[in-house]
Every structure is written in structure tokens, then in C-alpha cells.
Inverse folding.
């Protein structure tokens, strides 16, 4: 993912804190997704630490690149795994002869297990900081 950010301060170790304007998933073009975007979400900013191998200074507008691998993995863990475990639990219980309610209960346990796995995975990933950012170009100064 490539974004434009503003350098807010220089950190030791060849790193810089940058402020990135958070955008909606559709790039805030409501004609593409049918609307429903929150103006608060679109206008908020996020500060991240990025590798500063090019010597950007505070106030510089820079291009920041990040890996999307961690984001996609998180999306799978949060959205796909719990539902997958729900359906596996539901259909396995139904195949074993449990009633509809019993099967739904087993599916619910599978869903809850999926959520627990997502939380544990998130804690592990946060310690590893799987999403890394780096400044690749200076666009312009203030």
C-alpha cells in the first residue's frame, strides 16, 4: 500500500513518525460503494513509525509504503475463521444427529473459538509488528 504522509518528528535509529490521513476502503468515492462512509473516519489521521532511509525532515510530505500481508492476514482471522468454524461445527453436529438447536449451539461454540483464536493471533502479531512502513520519497516540504 502506498500513501502520502507528513513527517511529524525524527526518531533515533533512522526512523521517523509520520501522520497518515486515514481513508475509507473505497477512497471516499461513494459512487463506487453506495455510500455509508463516515466523515469522521475519512478525516482522521493515524501516526505510525516508518523507516527513514532517505533523510526526510519534520514537515516534509512523503510517500510511505507498507506491506499489506499483515492486514490481509488479520482480515482473514477476524472475518473468515470464526464463520468457517461456525459452519464446520454446525454441519458436523447435524451429521452426528443433533437437533437444529444443538447444531446451532455447537456452531456458536465454534464461532466463539474463532474469535478467541483471532484475539490470540492479534496479540502475537502486535508483538512482532508485522506491518512495517518505510518512507520511499519526499514529495514536497511545508
Amino acid at each position: 500500500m502506498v500513501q502520502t504522509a507528513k513527517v511529524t518528528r525524527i526518531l533515533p535509529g533512522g526512523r521517523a513518525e509520520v501522520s497518515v490521513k486515514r481513508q475509507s476502503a473505497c477512497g471516499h468515492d461513494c459512487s463506487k460503494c453506495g455510500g455509508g462512509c463516515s466523515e469522521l473516519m475519512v478525516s482522521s489521521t493515524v501516526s505510525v513509525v516508518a523507516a527513514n532511509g532517505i533523510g526526510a525532515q519534520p514537515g516534509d510530505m512523503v510517500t510511505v509504503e507498507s506491506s499489506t500481508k499483515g492486514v490481509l492476514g488479520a482480515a482473514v482471522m477476524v472475518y473468515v475463521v470464526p464463520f468457517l468454524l461456525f459452519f464446520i461445527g454446525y454441519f458436523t453436529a447435524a451429521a452426528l444427529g443433533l437437533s437444529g438447536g444443538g447444531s446451532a449451539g455447537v456452531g456458536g461454540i465454534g464461532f466463539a473459538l474463532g474469535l478467541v483464536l483471532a484475539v490470540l493471533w492479534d496479540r502475537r502479531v502486535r508483538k512482532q509488528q508485522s506491518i512495517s512502513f518505510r518512507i520511499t520519497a519526499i514529495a514536497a516540504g511545508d
